[in-house]
Write a structure and sequence with these properties.
The chain contains seven helices and two strands. By secondary structure, it is mostly helical. Helix 3 packs parallel to helix 6 and helix 4 packs across helix 6.
């Protein structure tokens, strides 16, 4: 089931492995943004998890959290940064935004704060913002 939560193509990332851990995390966040857009089933499950408290949904949430823990472990292994708590908090906020923006399209709301989530141009602007936030958080000491 863990593979279901991964909307990131690991082969693609391994073939185009970025030069730094910072670049790798930025790539993963952007791939998460685009991958979730394409995975309609996952979007519906996430909405279901937000609206109901059932044991199966709790288990699915825990599995998704385990995937996130793996990402955190990789950040530590790569000596990603000496401020991992701050950076993890920043990543949590970015992921929450990624989830929310993609879930807006499920509920037939294609715009958010003036951005059309069905527009390729607007999605590219959001991807740029994801990278900028990640880069900024990495620079903070």
């Amino acid at each position: 089931m863990k593979d279901y939560w991964s909307v990131i193509d690991e082969k693609e990332i391994n073939q185009n492995l970025p030069a730094s851990a910072k670049d790798l995390l930025e790539l993963v966040l952007v791939k998460q943004f685009e991958g979730l857009r394409k995975n309609k089933e996952l979007q519906k499950i996430m909405l279901w998890q937000l609206s109901e408290n059932r044991p199966i949904l709790t288990r699915l949430y825990e599995q998704r959290e385990e995937v996130g823990q793996g990402l955190q472990a990789n950040m530590t292994e790569l000596n990603f940064c000496d401020k991992s708590e701050y950076y993890r908090a920043t990543v949590a906020l970015v992921l929450a935004g990624i989830y929310h923006l993609n879930l807006c399209t499920v509920t037939k709301r294609s715009t958010f704060f003036g951005f059309d989530l069905n527009s390729e141009d607007d999605r590219k602007k959001i991807e740029k913002a994801i990278i900028d936030i990640s880069s900024f958080a990495h620079q903070i000491r």
